Amino acid sequence: MPLPRPLKPLAAIGALALLLTGQVLAEAPGLNGELRGTGDLGVVIERASGSVALVDTTRREVLRHIEGFGDLSHASVKFTRDARYAFVFGRDGGLTKLDLLTGEIAERILQGGNSIGGAISQDGRFVAVGNYEPGGVKVFDTETMELVIDVPATYQRPDGSTAQAKVVGVVDVPGNVFVFSLFEAGEIWTLDMSRDEPELTKHRDVGSMPYDALITPNGRYYIAGLFGEDGMALLDLWHPENGVQRILPDYGQNDYGQGEQRLPVYKMPHLEGWAMAGNRAFFPAVGRSEVLVADTRDWSLTNRIAVHGQPIFVMSRPDERQVWVTFAHPLNDKVQVIDTQTLEVIATLEPGDSILHKEFTPRGEHIWISARDSNQVVVYDTRTFEELARLPAESPSGIFFTHRAHQIGL
Amino acid sequence: MPLPRPLKPLAAIGALALLLTGQVLAEAPGLNGELRGTGDLGVVIERASGSVALVDTTRREVLRHIEGFGDLSHASVKFTRDARYAFVFGRDGGLTKLDLLTGEIAERILQGGNSIGGAISQDGRFVAVGNYEPGGVKVFDTETMELVIDVPATYQRPDGSTAQAKVVGVVDVPGNVFVFSLFEAGEIWTLDMSRDEPELTKHRDVGSMPYDALITPNGRYYIAGLFGEDGMALLDLWHPENGVQRILPDYGQNDYGQGEQRLPVYKMPHLEGWAMAGNRAFFPAVGRSEVLVADTRDWSLTNRIAVHGQPIFVMSRPDERQVWVTFAHPLNDKVQVIDTQTLEVIATLEPGDSILHKEFTPRGEHIWISARDSNQVVVYDTRTFEELARLPAESPSGIFFTHRAHQIGL
């Protein structure tokens, strides 16, 4: 953590400035005592310690480790549209706003009992949080963190009684709309925040137990995975009047069941990691050591690529020429790279123990990979596969860079 | 230009700090005396006055007008990977580095006689400038602005003598490679900066007088327009061994000449404005009031959409649902919007006089349009077409937002 300029003299100047002007300038020195752009910053979730490593992708350095985020055992992050603040969604229902320039927590609230993620609206004004307990979505003002609207995920059970469902797969789409799924209810809801009175639309009977979802990079197709049956639920947000359709009918725990022996499903794959490359979608099989390829024009399955283990995150390099794959326990010791033209595995890397997540730099020249049990984040050149850096981090998991602020659904 | 905090007291503090520590802290107060993220900043070229308007896309405000950029009559802009600095390429060969946080020129050199644009390498280390006079490319270190390599665009004339060609269509592609075209030579060159000794590769006889070029968003296809003949030159950068191929054989000044009366060609269209939406490319006809549509899988022409005038910039909203079109003089008083599904013109706007350029906010909720002779930049909601703001600018032309720092080829 090299700090190129000493912080103390600058802090002293801040105090002096305060005396002279009556204005608080405590912020002025910034993280390293200097102004800096926020385009090459990022955060790494340190899950065991409830802390976050603030990183610089140009110098490939950890700038600071920041504590006080609560339970980060399954955390995710969204950035404000100015790329100054990161909202960290914690498992304990905590919503924490981190100032990337001062390296300090700007605000933290406990908004629910058990949050699994959220999204920031297209216009940057609202942050939505999806909650397991109590089930629902709460929307806050990104600036003031005041509650704007509380949407309980209330649904009717077959016996006529009502209950609240766990909310999963919260994303933002164009038009200042949030989309999310209700696990127990088997419903997909959209919440339109562009109106003075937010408008809720419910799609019922989309399938049994949607457990996660993805949004295509253009924000058009919302696709939810189903835990209770095979196939996936697709909502075309350009044509919501068409309702929710079923695609990839054999996809799921019975993944194209052809009588072959299935692996035990230790972990359902993350769907947000689906890789789109041209007309191809690359995605993780469930309980099988395969990456599947579908044609996005008709969502038909076209290829199955044999890989090291059951894939968890299948992510496309920004130029779509490679797809990088991480795997479920106990085979989470390797990362594989698939060529999107030949569909062949062209590299197998061993960054460390318990590989959890990865993130490409915005233009794809590097990839950062978290090796939880090695307490390291490893940086590779994606063209030469050369290892460029190993950075210290406490049980690192999710890695998120600020360019996500500018991408639909991220 | 509201400046929320007075600058003078802060400047005084800076001077005092210098006295106390011997360190120059002139930067510390920043543009508005406060730290800020750089994700929602942008610049508007003010062509007549050689100045730049620094803008905030969240508050929809001009933060400051900055002078001293020389001749900006055909200027373009690239951002550093930290999104702190803008490199402005001026017609007078000036290369100016603007600090978006202080609102001041960090450095300015006259690197050539007549520059038309440039690019920043994938890793952010190099800025390449294409020059008309003398013809060639110069590459500088983005941090120090020291010359790294000077590549004269020397070619052989039919009579065996050598000359230097004007360089156009400079872009960056993955692998830390710059690609550019030589107008008089009819050549496309690639300059690989990933090696200790930069490697130059020449593709000869690509067609007569390439005048501009575009790179597809994934950085794979480099497509140059030809002034001297019809058709376009396509280089597949994933397979440079295949050489340069000809596509859209009738495209150009004889644009699918079917005996119809052609409009006079006042201005060749900008190619960098090509819109990609799914498998469709939307692009300007030459000398005809049409937007053309090609299938990017085989580059065949599929549709012709009648529009208000000869298109100049044809740009896709980030979610690919709309394409926005500006027009050549004398019909540059309107902007039209095409629905990418129905291929119909769904809106015609009149932002002001002499519409020159436009830029979407990163997630596409707004568009900023420069009306040169109205001395205004007009901001619209892209969903409702409601006018949101009119900002003062001196003869505004190009508009560039910082999210470009994170996109291949932008």
Main traits of this protein?
410 residues, 1 helix, homodimer, disordered N terminus, Thrombin, subunit H, Methylamine Dehydrogenase, Chain H, mainly beta, four-stranded antiparallel sheet
**Count of beta strands of chain A:** 34
Rg of chain A is: 22 Å
Main sheet specs of chain A: 4 strands, antiparallel
- In whole angstroms, how far apart are the ends of chain A? 28 Å
Residues in helix, % of chain A: under 10%
Report strand order across the widest sheet of chain A.
Answer: 3-2-1-34
Protein chains sharing the most extensive interface: A-B, 61 and 60 residues
Summed over residues and divided by their number, the pLDDT of chain A gives a mean of 88
The assigned structural class of chain A equals: mainly beta
CATH superfamily of the domain at 111-247 in chain A: YVTN repeat-like/Quinoprotein amine dehydrogenase
InterPro entries (chains A, B): Cyt_cd1_C_sf, Haem_d1_sf, Host-pathogen_enzymatic-act
Keywords (chains A, B): Signal
Pfam family, one (chains A, B): Cytochrom_D1
Signal peptide (chains A, B): 1-26
